[in-house]
Design goal:
With about 210 residues, the chain is an alpha/beta fold. The protein has 6 helices and 13 strands. It has one domain: Rossmann fold (3-Layer(aba) Sandwich), CATH 3.40.50. It binds uracil (URA).
Length: about 210
């Protein structure tokens, strides 16, 4: 595995990931767990963010204290399952802007086609977190990164709950500058390109569809 994959090993996060994987977990609990795991991931990812000292006044006296400095952030969920991760990250980073990208697979060419994209105007200056619960074949992730780079985005990270080795290799091959953050790397994909063992179809499990 390359250095450019970070696996979140926090015990709380790993415990919640197990609950997410279980087939008995219903949509309500699944949504809550995905949100909680996303908050924990945002917390972990921001632990090395730069700080700057500012002068403030408490009700008691003047003092200096710290605030976040560095680049502003943007969360870009890949529709539709990525939407399940947005609120969890916003709970930790409420000032982040949210952009959206929608891609479908052309049934003939099997290539991802962009059907919707709306990004913050200053996307080129922001630190970008693309979010999708699953990094499976990597096709959608690569197309989303392409869509962002076309708009001059530079500082891109990909965050998922579970990744496959195939997806990681594909993203790194196409975009070696994009670091991947994941809760687990599962052994591989089945014949339907589902991550195995994984947790099934993330969109269906979030929204109760089939
Ligand atoms: N998308 C999903 O929702 N699940 C997988 O296992 C793979 C892709």
């Amino acid at each position: 595995m390359t250095n450019d994959v970070f696996i979140f090993d926090h015990p709380l996060l790993q415990h919640k990931l197990t609950m997410i994987r279980k087939k008995e977990t219903g949509s309500k609990e699944f949504r809550e767990l995905v949100e909680e795991v996303s908050s924990l991931m945002a917390y972990e990812m921001t632990k090395s963010m730069p700080l700057e000292k500012v002068e403030i006044e408490t009700p008691v006296c003047k003092t200096s204290s710290y605030v976040l400095s560095g680049k502003k952030m943007a969360i870009i969920p890949l529709m539709r399952a990525g939407l399940g991760m947005v609120n969890g990250i916003l709970n930790m980073i409420p000032v982040a802007k949210v952009g959206h990208v929608g891609l479908y697979r052309d049934p003939e060419t099997l290539q991802p086609v962009e059907y919707y994209a709306k990004f913050p105007g200053d996307i080129d200056k922001r630190e970008i977190f693309i979010v999708d619960p699953m990094l499976a074949t990597g096709g959608t992730a690569i197309a989303a990164i392409d869509a962002l780079k076309k708009r001059k985005a530079k500082h891109i990270k990909f965050i998922c709950l579970i990744a496959s080795p195939e997806g990681i290799a594909a993203v790194h091959n196409a975009h070696p500058d994009v670091k991947i953050f994941t809760g687990a790397v599962d052994p591989g994909l089945n014949e339907k390109s589902y991550i195995t063992p994984g947790f099934g179809d993330a969109g269906d499990r979030l929204y109760g569809t089939k």
